Amino acid sequence: MQGPVRTCVGCRGRDSRSTLLRLVVVTDDRGRSTVTPDPRRRLPGRGAWLHADIACLDLAVRRRAFSRAFRCRVDGSDALRAWIADEAQRSAVLTN
Asked: pTM for the full model?
């Protein structure tokens, strides 16, 4: 592994930063906090790292890892699941 190493909040596996997806919390005008992917790694705030895999997302949700990582109650695993599935489908189309 070269470069910075991060830990996935789902599987707790260590991997290079380039292979993990950075997640941040975005709060809307009603005060709801939602987990949002940050593929460009530029959004402000505390970040958490996750493999772009549904299995790791399920582990993170089951372990309540997002609330612990962001130090607040967060929602949005359904939107995050859809985003990861879309990205997986998009990358499969590009490789074929």
From this structure: 0.86
